[in-house]
Amino acid sequence: MLLPVSPQFYNFFQTISELEKSIFLNKFMAFFSDIEAGNTAITILQSGEYISHLGRFEIHTFEIEIYERKERWEIIFFGTAIPHARIQMSDREPPLKKDFLISIEYTKLFIKNSLADIAEGFDDNPKPFFQKLLNFTPENWFAIAGKLWWVYLRLKMLAIPQLDNQFLGKLNPKLPLFDFGNYLSQKVFFNHEEIVMISMNKKCFKSFLQSSDSLILGTLSREEITEWLNYLNLEFDVWFSAIVAGSNAKK
Questions:
Q1: Is the CB of residue 250 less than 8 Å from the CB of residue 162?
Q2: Is there a smaller number of Cβ atoms within 10 Å at the N or the C end of the chain?
Q3: Phi/psi at 137 (nearest 5 deg)?
Q4: DSSP label at residue 101
Q5: DSSP characters for the chain?
Q6: What confidence score (pLDDT) does residue 153 get?
């Protein structure tokens, strides 16, 4: 798989209607128009609907010129069971020193301006030499950043194959993950507005989900949690036993 220049940014939706897409695209263009007021040129290169093995999706491509810098951005809308958009920079002139780094300035800017809920990319934080030698596996070099509740839900998707399939390609039934995320932000994680970054290595992945699960279990009643999980077609034990990527937990 060819990685983009930027991290992959994801924004979740309650539904992806024509109105929602239009509002989001206008917000995206307004962001770049304002970032260097009066010095940004935006060109729409492509807009269209396509069909692939992942189903039907809609892609919009923009070229952004800021002073002597050119960036090509793609926004792809997926009307899957968990509606979302993926935003990524596919090309840049002059090129960045390193591609796909989660530390790129756009990560904080997009999340702060509600253009992305999470970002997924390479974790370029310095690592001890022995860790580089002993833990040279892909997950040790990837990280997810975003508001705590969205990072939590994304990691749960990766830990529950059924949920990840509904995010990636399954169209129905539509799942209220967007509403669940907002509920968690108001009822559980209301004191956690900062952007967090979680490494995808097994230890960090598991530790983060366990601590977040404990906070949810200590704040919400079992009845409240079960009601939401019923909407997601998942059982209570399946959700809270899923703490590692690609777990085999089943409904």
A1: yes
A2: N
A3: -125, 150
A4: B
A5: -PPPSSPEEEEE-S---HHHHHHHHHHHHHHHHHHTTT-EEEEEEEEEEEEETTEEEEEEEEEEEETTEEEEEEEEEE-SSS-EEEEEEEEEESPPSSSSBTTSHHHHHHHHTTS-SEEEEE--S---HHHHHH--SGGGGEEEEEEHHHHHHHHHHHH-HHHHHHHHT---S---HHHHHHHHHHHTSTT--SEEEEE-SHHHHHHHHHHHHHHHHHHS-HHHHHHHHHHTT--HHHHHH--STT-----
A6: 98
| pLDDT at residue 48 is higher than 90 | no
**Token pair in block for residue 64:** 């952004």
| Residue 228 CB coordination number (10 Å) | 18
Token pair in block for residue 106:
């756009």
Closest Cα to residue 153, out of 174, 123, 122, 184?
A: 184
Tokens of 97: 């020193």
At residue 164, the pLDDT reads 94
Q: Which of 17-31, 45-59, 164-178, 207-221 is predicted with the least confidence, judged by mean pLDDT? A: 45-59
Q: Average per-residue pLDDT in the chain?
A: 89
Cβ atoms within 10 Å of 134's Cβ, excluding its own: 10
Collapsing DSSP states into helix, strand and coil, what is residue 249? coil
User: What digits encode the pLDDT tens for the residues 110-130?
Assistant: 999 999 999 999 987 765 554
